[in-house]
Amino acid sequence: MNSWKFLCKWMGTAAIAGLGIYLATSGALSQQQPSQPATRFAAATSSQPLALDGNGSLLAAVNPDNNSVTFFDVGSDRNKRLREIPCGVEPNGVAMNPQGTRAYVANTVSGTVSVLNINRNSPGIARVTREIRVGAEPYGLALTPNATKLYVTNRRSNSVSVIDTQSNRVIKTIEAVGPAPTGIAITNNGDDRDDDETVYVTQFFALPRPGRIDGEDDSKQGVISVIRTVADELDQTINILPIGDTGFKAAGDAIAKVAPPPTITAADLRFTTSAYPNQLNNLVIKGNYAYVPNTGASPNGPVRFDVNTQSLLAVIDLTARTDAGQTINMHRAVAEQGATPKLFLTQPWAIAAKNKSDEAYVVSAASDVAVKVALDRGTGKPTVQNTGATPSRVLEIPTGKNPRGIVINSADTRAYVMNYISRDVTVLNVESGQDKAVAAMQSSSLPGAGTTEDLILAGKELYNTSVGEFDGPTPLSPKIRGRMSNNGWGSCAACHPDGLTDNVVWIFAAGPRRTVSQHQDFDADDPANQRVLNWSGILDEIDDFELNIRGVSGGLGVIVGDDGVTPAATVAAFNPANTGRPQLRIRGYNAWDAIRAYVQFGIRAPISPIDPYDPDADAGRQLFIQANCQSCHGGNQWTVSRVKFTPPPADNLLSNGQVIGELKKVGTFDPAQKNEVRATGAPPLGADGFVPPSLLSISAFPQTFFHNGSANSLEDVMANVAHRSAGTNGADMLSDDNARSQLIRFLLSIDASTTPIPPQ
Q: What three-state secondary structure class fits 454?
């Protein structure tokens, strides 16, 4: 069975399964709610995977893996789960009107927005009354404060749909908003008009900066698109600039060809590192500023756990509509705290601000905490807060597993956090001097122990965590924590959000390497069929990424010695094979078996916005075949690369540590380019060619192509004559501009539904 169809089947079943609920309350709580329903929201609105009504008494949370939305009565701290309602496939965003009588859910795979009418006096609570077709992969949605319009980001169509909430119809589609529009925040001008607000939309991926070379720490910038509700047209874009000094120094500079010493001391850490904002998932408006949590990329080598990804909180001046120059690196606050152990704030994913005070909370998706920040009303500058009892420790509030959304009620007394992996909602007491978790509400069911679904979820948990919690060597042993990274610094998802790509070119040990989306690693129809990994063919097992846990994230890893606890002394790419070696276990599963199951079955290929019957795409398919592009990009995975042996490979299959037979020379390697360098400053691999990348769903990953990011568009890719002629022994069959345009149209149409072209 196709792995995506398999996933839909089990998630759909889980959505209607019987569900339990647990509450863990702390102390006597009080939370008085106004008796009259609100008619408009008191503050600016923001897209989230959970939503409150205007009075803060009704909460809705989406369940992406269970294809449902759950409603809770949270008034006066009742924290009661009311009902789970099935909706479309993979809901990722929800909005509710101020009165709490209607909710809207963005169904990413279905390509629809579900409209739910709510009746709190009905046993069913809510029912879907309409499905509104929007663009490809709707993700974020937000209502104007008076709830007359709903704005929806379509991540793969690069557009925003505008829905009139009286007729529940799309009244406009704003095209070309920018690649991968994701988060939305809408201003509140304090009156009932819907034609004087401003909509701010994040573009998830950073985009190239003119004159910079990919792989440099300042090579890209974040982008916010601005829409005026008066005309529902794109007004302008705002660039979020790199942070000039992360506060963490490196022991070398790869692009400058300065190698770090073999043994690094504190005195060697003398090279200032910067970072550019990336993975802009969410933003919030407070006063005259917008705040954008994001994972900063610092890709220049040498690779070291504390100089690769950073926890940035960027600030936009809404009056000047420009970067306010107040971005902070929240990792610095943790590094400077005196108390140990330390837990860094990896993958800051969402933010919510209080209504009546200048405070906000950011959730760290990988580290399972919410962190409190104070916001300067004059300059906009945020400051990470410490605990009152221990000033030397950052105020980090534990949440559930993989928090991805947070909302605060109108009284500023409670915050609610949606936890993706644990499928629950954490209730936080955010009253002055409190800042603690006080309850947890199960939102949707977890898979049964020992099932395939449970194995996949265990792998997803490890993939998304910066910490990791493992079984002890015996049933009575305490849990083993903290092996996935150094003090919670990194996670697989920090570079592969949702198992895909961060679109960053990292200066790694082999050379400049654009992050590869892992939905391309296994054949969807035969998950045992795996391509050779890494652009240079230097890995052949998922378990080989133990090297990344230890090297890139600075963790102790999960492959262990005979005692079942101590990290194994030797881990290599090829010899010995890593699959099957003793390793830590999670809920009874071998850790790497669980991660492999997640990569095989739990990562969905993005959906193309191109109609499969588009005539130009159809013509492009024929050109693809005529140019013999399938000689490199044929087959179900849209790459001919395969692991054709049982690991480890025989010595005659290797050269320079690469599976040499899987490499193709296609004219994309130029050793004279500035970024063609290893992390140590030495010459890179590449002269023997590269593993052909998969073309599956390349429309989802804009403006960074080839191993080193030297092409910023598919037009640039097609301009490389050697590359486009590689399948025809140098005969250029794509010299015509129109032919190349048609081929590009076909490439952009490729997703999991596209019929593969067999290799020749």
A: helix
Measured in whole angstroms, the distance separating CA 120 from the mean position of its chain's CA atoms is 34
Phi, psi of 348, deg, nearest 5:
-65, 120
Question: Which residue in 437, 445, 465 sits closest to 368, CA to CA?
Answer: 465
Tokens of residue 246, six digits: 């992360």
CB of 715 within 8 A of CB of 656? no
pTM over 0.90: yes
pLDDT grade, residue 612 (50/70/90)? confident
| In 420-570, alpha helices (H) | 452-464, 492-495, 546-551
Whether residue 686 contacts residue 511, with contact meaning beta carbons closer than 8 Å, is answered with: yes
**Residue 142: partners with Cβ closer than 8 Å, 6 or more residues away:** 45, 46, 47, 95, 150, 151, 184, 185, 186, 199
For residue 35, name the pLDDT band (cuts at 50, 70, 90): low
167 burial (CB, 10 Å; 0-12 / 13-18 / 19+) is exposed
- d(CA 636, CA 460) in angstroms, rounded, equals 24
Give the C-alpha distances (Å, rounded to integers) separating 141 from 43, 45, 128, 165, 638. Answer: 16, 10, 17, 13, 33
Per-residue pLDDT at 27 exceeds 70: no
Backbone φ and ψ for 315, nearest 5 degrees, come out as -130, 130
The answer to whether 179 touches 156, Cβ cutoff 8 Å, is: no
Q: In what order do the strands lie in the sheet with 169-174?
A: 138-143, 149-154, 159-164, 169-174
Task: Verify cis geometry, omega within 30 degrees of 0, for the bond prior to 341.
Answer: yes
Phi-psi domain of 300 (left: phi exceeds 0; alpha: psi -120 through 50; beta: other): beta
* Eight-class DSSP state of 638: T
Measured distance between the N- and C-terminal CA atoms of the chain, rounded to whole angstroms: 25
Tell me, what DSSP letter sits at residue 518? Answer: G
Token digits of residue 213: 């070379």
